[in-house]
Amino acid sequence: MAFPSDYHLHxxxxxxxxxxxxxxxxxxxAAGLAEIGFSEHAPMIRDxxxxxxxxxxxxxxxxxxxxxxxxRFPQLTIKYGLEVDYLPGHEAWIRELxxxxxxxxxxxxxxxxxxxxxxxxxxxxxxxxxxxxxxIWSEYLNRLSQAAASGLFQIIGHPDxxxxxxxxxxxxRTPGFREFLxxxxxxxxxxxxxxxxxxxxxxxMYPAPEILRLALxxxxxxxxxxxxxxxxxxxxxxxxxxxxxxxxxxxxxCRFTRGVRELIPIP
Length: 267
Ligand SMILES: [Zn+2]
Ligand SMILES: [Zn+2]
Hints:
The protein has eight helices and nine strands. It is an alpha/beta fold. The longest helix has 17 residues, at 133-149.
């Protein structure tokens, strides 16, 4: 079976993943993938922001390692990307990053709902306990819409990451998601199906099936990502991701080349 491109891959440069681009590329070839893209956690506005992003001085090494993988695995198409944290006020920095290379795509992700609260960080579970989850979700959804409205990203990553620890307060969040998806459509920003959620406490891919159906109805395009943090996770659960996409009604997904989108049939 052919699989869609895996556009969400991390390497050891972010300090919490294993493998270099060559290791992940080898794994992609073994899994039968035809195209992958690297999306390392991009340098933050300051290197001491936290301990889980690539430092700014490592960007050249990152690019060099991807180039090496391209040379070693000519049978595989390999794209240059970054997973960039969206925080209001960081737009100029993100633009600066975009000028450092001829990137194929940026995945814009909301992990931070304030300068210090990264909602998916297991070390911040106490923060969840000491705050109102309804407010956390509402701030998360606000930022998701802002990230889409910024026009800085080709793809929005794991668009309901806030459910990672399985904390889903009861109020209906559909209006927030609808606003986000309409904003994404209006700015020609895709969303990804990210399979990593299956292995987190929420036990479900990002986004949830009902959000994916809403995304299709709204006219939002799609990519696929494993969010691999180790070589053996490349393309993980892509058979399930393809089933999910198709059951939501998607027949095409996006390929990005130097920021330009092309629609290709989902295998
Ligand atoms: Zn990571
Ligand atoms: Zn992420």
